[in-house]
Specification:
The structure is a single chain. This protein has 276 residues and is of the alpha+beta class. It has two domains: 144 residues, Up-down Bundle (Four Helix Bundle (Hemerythrin (Met), subunit A)), CATH 1.20.120.450; 97 residues, 2-Layer Sandwich (Nonspecific Lipid-transfer Protein, Chain A), CATH 3.30.1050. Strands 1-4-3-2-5-6 form a six-stranded mixed β-sheet. Helix 1 runs antiparallel to helix 5. It starts with a strand and ends in a 14-residue tail after the last strand.
């Protein structure tokens, strides 16, 4: 039936472990260029300032390096809050030094993982009870990229839309779509085509098959329909947005007014979430 992204058939891993070291270098260079006022600038991440987001990014590295303690007691919201509060006592130069060191160590650790082995923590925003390590690592890249981008937005720095980072970030985010549509009933063969233009350029098709939605690359879905491997398309909805809008949508920023929807099944996509 072709190559689909999730829920059936063979899955092509998104292999991004080699991107963590250069992405951490981008973060360190960014932070070293901030002045005192910018460290305290507000961000879209709730009550967090730029410094709070930087502290959280340090936490993501140190959690990875402390993996065995992540057992059933893990509570993301409480742990995030406790860490960020404690790190407010740390000066920016010390925080940068820690991010530089432990970001590099975390990059080496992530590169050492077997991408096909089970992940320590499943990617819950995709509806997974268990995930392969490559998916967890790709999710981790989206976490580090989008928080760095929030710092860039808050301080007026240029966005980091280099396709080497941004393309796999968007590709990983779209894995959230089947869960976003889980309770949406539609005739078999119904499709929702997501087109991301400009930054993060790509296209994906969410297809209703029997009682579930599955995610395909748009090209693979089109080939499957043409080969009559799936029922004829009864309804197609096309959702179009720029990459700059897409990453914001998947990280809970209000951008619905920047999204173009043609067809009856676009609204659930606006509620897709690819962060915890």
């Amino acid at each position: 039936m072709g190559s689909r992204i999730v829920n059936c058939g063979s899955v092509k891993p998104i292999l991004v472990a080699d991107l963590f070291a250069p992405l951490n270098d981008e973060l360190v260079a960014l932070l070293r260029g901030l002045d005192a006022a910018e460290w305290n600038a507000p961000t879209v991440a709730g009550s967090w300032t730029v410094k709070d987001i930087a502290a959280h990014l340090l936490d993501t590295s140190m959690r990875r390096l402390s993996g065995p303690v992540l057992d059933g007691t893990f509570e993301p919201n409480r742990w995030n809050s406790e860490w960020v509060t404690a790190m407010r006592r740390v000066s920016p130069p010390v925080l940068i030094e820690l991010i530089d060191r432990y970001g590099r160590e975390a990059a080496r650790f992530l590169a050492s993982l077997d991408p096909l082995a089970p992940a320590l923590i499943p990617v819950t925003w995709a509806g997974d009870d268990a995930s392969p390590a490559w998916f967890d690592v790709a999710r981790e890249l989206t976490e580090r990229w989008h928080h760095q981008q929030q710092i860039r937005d808050a301080t007026g720095r240029p966005p980091l839309y280099d396709s080497v980072y941004f393309a796999p970030v968007i590709e990983t985010f779209v894995y959230s779509l089947p869960l976003a549509y889980r309770d949406v009933d539609a005739p078999p063969g119904t499709t929702v085509l997501l087109r991301v233009t400009d930054e993060g350029n790509g296209a994906w098709s969410l297809v209703r098959e029997d009682s579930r939605w599955t995610l395909w690359t748009a090209a693979a879905a089109a080939a499957a329909f043409k080969a009559a491997a799936l029922p004829p398309q009864s309804t197609q909805t096309i959702v179009t947005m720029r990459g700059d809008t897409a990453w914001r949508l998947f990280t809970r920023q209000p951008v619905a007014d920047r999204v173009q929807i043609e067809g009856p099944y676009g609204e659930p996509l606006l509620k897709a979430v690819a962060i915890i």
